[in-house]
Every structure is written in structure tokens, then in C-alpha cells.
Amino acid sequence: MKTITKSLLAFVTVLGLGLAVHAQSTPAAEKEWTFLLFLNGHNNLSSFGDMNLKDMEKSGSTDQVNYVVEWGKADDKVNRRLHVEKSKDPTKVTSPTVMTLNNVDMGDYKNLIEFIRWGVKTYPAKHYFIAVWNHGSGWKRMAPGQIHAQDISYDDNSGNHITTEQLGLALTEAKNIIGHNVDVYGSDACLMQMMEVNSQFKDVVDYVVGSQETEPGQGWPYAPFMQKWGASPTSTPKEIASLLSKEYLAAYNGGVYGRQSVTFSAVDMSKLDALIASTQALAAHLKSLGNDSLKKIRTELGNVTNFYYSDYADYGDFVKRMDALKTVQHDSKLFSQVASDIKDVVITTNNSSSYAGATGISIWAPTYSTSDMSRYSNLEFSKLTGWDSFLKAMLAAK
Q1: Domain chopping of the chain, boundaries
Q2: Helix axes 272-288, 387-396, angle to 10 degrees
Q3: What is residue 383's predicted lDDT score, i.e. its pLDDT?
Q4: CB of 292 within 8 A of CB of 319?
Q5: How many CA atoms lie within 13 A of 355 on its CB side?
Q6: Pick from 244, 132, 106: which is nearest to 185 by CA?
Q7: pLDDT digits over 75-94, tens only?
Q8: Which of 115, 30, 34, 32 is nearest to 72 (CA)?
Q9: Any idea what DSSP says for residue 65?
Q10: Which of 6, 47, 129, 278 is the most exposed place for a label (fewest CB within 10 A)?
Q11: 23-270 — its CATH code?
Q12: Is this model's pTM higher than 0.85 or not?
């Protein structure tokens, strides 16, 4: 989720995807980059979507970078696909509507795929940055009393959302459409920079950007980010991911969005397999520890850096603190290997000083039994690492 103070809005349900009433007929010339933003404002964040688009229009697309948006608003049943162009009127969104669609369910991952398919065909490029804009809650579904805390891209009109598993399907299909890995994927949404989320699409994306913590309503700093991106259009995917991470912190550290406590990081997905392998070894080691050691681990979890959900633990801080426990059968070499692999995966950590203990990627570590475990065990991360088995053993320790 993004954190806001406005009251929640209620909407009637609308179903079905309408026909396009206006469409660009021929693809544009290939550019260096195309940025595809799935901006789901079908909820109480809608006004921030308007704000972000106006910020994007301070720069607009260039001769080498396309900025393309599918824009859904809370008070409009029509989605608009925009090719973002520089505007001289900061009071309204002026970019041309390339296509309009009726009653789009932006909580349906298939509509994300269709936007990507259309965007790649219409705005070909060497590199693609795909982003989803909305509420986010990491891998978990709704918590009691939290209407928008359901994975990502919650649509108030339909009541649907895109699950972590479905996001993996969408990005896998995006790779097929593009013909190579998605160069950069980002969630302009809360709490999405997690091992569990990233593992779901680890083989189809090169770099992932996002926040471990909740995002302020303003979200990403599109104006300064796009200005610098447009000035360096041949930047590599790693450089673009790192640039956004740096600009995000700058925006909330006395920059365009004032001063707020935030986290942001960029992850090199080519290094994730090594971290998954060492995590598998760590999970097996921790699971094998005796009852007393497992109880100590569960207690120590209360001291690990966490985020909006107390069970979303910073993985690097978890490893550091568990290593310091020196439990029975302690394996310092293994802890050191996992810590090293985390540093290899996380290429930027741009955090406010209040998150000094955060290392750029989170992991699920509950201290209580929960019905979430059945779904968790079927995530790719659990299948690859057995982390769920360790958690079950720790939670069962008496």
C-alpha cells in the first residue's frame, strides 16, 4: 500500500473490457527505451496518479525514450493509454490519448499483459522498463480491516487485485512478448521489495526496483528521474535502476517531496540464484537446530529491522542478528555466505537514516502461527528454499 490520510472511496463494480475507440495504427520507430507504466488509480490514490502524470509531463518522451502509461482514474470508467509528452500547462494532464478502453479491470493480470503487448508493439525499443503503480502489500493478501492490502494493483471497481503469483505470470509473458528478459521491473507501491515477490519472476527480469517499506502517496519522483534519464538515454538497465533508487531517496530527503522516512533499493536478479541456494542451506540448518535454539531465534526476531508488517523482516539484518546468537551447532561460515550473497544481489540501498539497519530486501519471518502459511508454501521461494519448513519448525518450538 501507499500511505495516505484521505478517507477510502467506494465504487460500484464494473466488469468487462471495452473496445478501443482511438488507437495508433502504426508502430513508432525503435528507440533505446520504452517505459510502460500500469497506473491503477481505481482507488483512493487516484489524485496522486494525476499528480505523477503532471510530473512526467515536465520532461515527456524524447527522441530516444518513450514514456507510455495506461491510466485508470477513480471517477472515470474509461482507461486512457497515453504517450507522455512535455506540457506547458502544469494544471492538467495534456499528453495525447493514443487509445481508450472501457471498464478495464486493473486488478486482472491479463489486462497488464495486454497493455505490455500493445506497448511493445506500438513503441518498440531495445530496452523495456515495466512498472505497476498502486497499493501494494508484498506477497500477502488482505489483512483484517485493511481494504487495500492485497498483493498489488487493487481495483476498487472490480474488487480484484494482482497476486504475487499472477505478477510472475505477467512478467513471464512480458519476456515472451519482448523476446528477452524485462530489463527493469518496478513496483510504485508499498512493501514489494521482497525475496518472496522477486523469486516469482527471477528468470525473466534483469533488475527490480522498489521499497521494502510503505511508500508515501507521492510515490516515485518522476520529474527529476525522467529529466536525468532523458538526458542519458543510452544508460544501461543497471544504471537506470540505480538512478531511480538514488532519486527516490533524494526526493524525500529534502527534495521535491520534502522530508519523510523511506526505503528504496535496486536488485540484480542475475545474482538471485546464488542467494536462493545459500538461503536453502540456511533454512535447512536453522530447521535442524534444537528446540531451545529455535525459541531463541523466534525471540530475537523481535529485534530485527522490520517494516509496516512486523513479520516483514529485513533479510540482511535477520542474518546478522541470528549469526550473533551463536546457537547450538552454529555455522558462522554459512551465515557469512548468505550475508555476502545479499550484498551481491542488492546493488543500491537508498534509505533514510531511520532505516539504517535495512539492507535492501525483505523476507517473511512471522513469530506467530498463521493461516497464510498454506499459500506461502506454494510460492516459488518456498519451493526453492524450504523457508516455510524452517518457519514451521520455529513456530512449533515450545
Answers
A1: 23-270, 272-396
A2: 30
A3: 98
A4: no
A5: 27
A6: 132
A7: 899 999 999 999 989 999 99
A8: 115
A9: E
A10: 6
A11: 3.40.50.11970
A12: yes
What pLDDT, on a 0 to 100 scale, did the predictor assign at position 358?
Answer: 97
The three three-digit cell numbers of residue 301, written as one number: 526476531
Rounded Cα gap, residues 222 and 18, in angstroms: 29
Contact 136, 209 (CB under 8 A): no
Tell me how far apart the terminal alpha carbons of the chain are, to the nearest angstrom. 35
User: What span, in angstroms and rounded, lies between the C-alpha atoms of 70 and 224?
Assistant: 21
The burial of 375, by beta-carbon neighbours within 10 Å (0-12 exposed, 13-18 middle, 19 or more buried), is given as: middle
Q: Which cell goes with 221?
A: 519522483
CB 53 within 8 A of CB 143: no
In sequence order, the β-bridge partners of residue 79 are 101
* Res 141: pLDDT: 63
**Pairing between strand 265-268 and 253-255?**
unpaired
pLDDT of residue 146: 52
pLDDT at 231: 96
Cβ–Cβ under 8 Å, residues 181 and 206: yes
The amino acid that residue 216 corresponds to is P
- Stretches where the chain sits below pLDDT 70 are 1-26, 141-149
- The residue behind cell 512535455 is 86
